[in-house]
Design a protein that fits this description.
By secondary structure, the protein is α+β, with helices and mostly antiparallel strands. It has ten helices and eight strands. The longest helix is centred in the middle third of the chain and has 14 residues. It starts with 19 loop residues before the first strand and ends in a 6-residue tail after the last helix. The protein binds zinc ion. The site of zinc ion has 7 residues, from loops.
Length: about 240
């Protein structure tokens, strides 16, 4: 039965066990290998990014400072490089670009709902994607979109957050501005004024009701489907 014997460190080879080189810690001597007629001593190392990691590094690469991580340092540097250089094509960059378009390009198809309503992007964010990214951080997931906390306020630090798309849709619907009887207010305020539950008004609009019908038809308790409305017009019971 073989017992595990630590491999003996050859004489005249400096013992590196327990030494730290950057993020690496040397666990054990591994072996000596000849490469192109030269002998290299290899050490078993672990990287602090993944304490369970095990790989071999040449002693001279450790001592010479050439190898100081499992490769994680280089990956992180690359990520920082992308970050610095704009991350074009990223979720955050797309969000930034679209936000500026909606607010500041009158030819954008949805300009009326943003720029046309006086929603703007603060100067710093408008000028600088890195400033936007610095203040907002990365989107927690691809499903997150930028949301303004005060729906009538600008895009700027303190008034924006990443929100899950579903939640955002819900808030947007409640904050949706509706013009009725010559006045414009958000859906939630209209619902209160006409004495309907906001979710009923939302559902009606989603089903294709006109704003006028959605706000003036009393709640029948059925909600009313588009199909029924198409055939019979809105219910007027109540
Ligand atoms: Zn590492």
């Amino acid at each position: 039965m073989a017992t595990e014997q630590p491999i003996r460190i050859p004489a005249r080879v400096e013992d590196l066990r327990g030494r730290h080189f950057g993020r690496l810690v040397v666990l054990a001597y591994a072996d000596v290998r000849a490469v192109s007629g030269r002998k290299y001593h290899y050490w078993l190392c672990s990287c602090s990014c993944t304490p369970a990691s095990r790989f071999l590094v040449r002693g001279e690469s450790l001592r010479g400072g050439n190898t100081t991580s499992c490769g994680c340092r280089k990956r992180e540097a690359q990520e920082r490089g992308n970050y610095k250089h704009g991350r074009t094509g990223s979720k955050e960059h797309h969000t930034w670009s679209q936000m500026r378009q909606r607010c500041h390009n009158p030819r954008h198809p949805r300009y009326a709902d943003w720029g046309g309503r006086g929603i703007f992007v603060c100067d710093e964010w408008r000028r600088s994607f890195p400033a936007f990214l610095r203040d907002m951080g990365e989107a927690p997931s691809p499903r997150h979109t930028i949301e303004r906390i005060d729906n009538d306020g600008p895009y700027r630090k303190g008034n924006c957050r990443w929100a899950p798309a579903e939640e955002q849709a819900r808030n947007t619907r409640k904050n949706r501005r509706l013009t009725f009887r010559g006045r414009t207010m958000i859906l939630a305020d209209w619902a209160r004024e006409v004495g309907l539950r906001p979710d009923i008004v939302e559902t009606r609009l989603r089903r294709g009701w006109s704003v006028e019908d959605a706000l003036s038809v009393p709640d029948s308790g059925f909600g009313g489907s588009r199909k029924m409305r198409g055939r019979n017009g809105p219910r007027t019971t109540g």
